[in-house]
Amino acid sequence: MFKWRSSQNHDTENDSVLRDAKVKELKVALGPLSQRDARFCTEGCLKRYLDARSWNVDKAKKMLEETLKWRATYKPEEIRWNEVAHEGETGKISRANFRDREGRTVLIMRPGKQNTTSPEGNIRHLVYMLENAILNLPEGQEQMCWLIDYTGFSMSTNVSVRTARDIINILQNHYPERLGVAFLYNPPRIFQAFWKVVKYFLDPKTFQKVKFVYPKNKESVELMTIYFDVENLPKEFGGNATLEYDHEDFSRMMTEDDAKSSKIWGFDDKLRHPANGHIINGHSKAEVAPEPLQVCN
């Protein structure tokens, strides 16, 4: 028995050494990066992309390079709450004030509170909330958790299949291994037809992270207690806490987080382009071209 444990520990150590070597290999393969790309490509980031591509360095490199191109164009770290606040007025996506038992940030989604019809607006709002969830992850934690409440859901409030596909593509291609688990709480029967189509866009690994939870099902209830403290969990998800979304309070929290994000990414919001909706003290400011970024190894 002791020999088996020793062997198991040795295998684990070997796996760790091999993975560390893969991370170093990927870092070298990427070559020199701009300051912002280097800030994004942390060790945890490299591990996530390697994990998403079964630790194949070439495939992980290709995937990561595609993400860097996407981020250079979409600029998700520069989206600010005042740009997407109208999408969040009903609280259709919010960050919970509690974490799961693994310390992961929790995003609460309520598709029944859909309030707009703009596909791009919905996607941009979700991307902002993903970036905010990542901003609030504790050190050493790379994943988040989703709680999806289907109260009030109808096909008229649901996003289109095309928008759902676009969202899934962004999540799987540019936020790999960020989702730890997603709980679909008490989805109605009419959701099943939508799910039958959407699930085929999910890769097998992501599919395994989606859990259907029904309050009258004993196993479902036990599953929620495994992941959450019921005293923190809102009643809408079978817990004892009260969930009330206050848009003004949430907006203040997001604005404070925007300031933290600006500091982390190394840019001043005051210099951002007014065409993106950024007004300083009632007056627009022209964008100031940044100095060329230094290349770092």
TrEMBL record:
InterPro entries in the cross-refs: CRAL-TRIO_dom, CRAL-TRIO_dom_sf, CRAL/TRIO_N_dom, CRAL/TRIO_N_dom_sf, PI_Transfer_CRAL-TRIO
> SUPFAM superfamilies in the record, alphabetically?
CRAL/TRIO domain, CRAL/TRIO N-terminal domain
CRAL-TRIO domain boundaries? 81-245
- PROSITE patterns according to UniProt: CRAL_TRIO
Instruction: Give an example GO molecular function.
Output: phosphatidylinositol transfer activity
The protein's name: CRAL-TRIO domain-containing protein
This protein's species is Saponaria officinalis (Common soapwort)
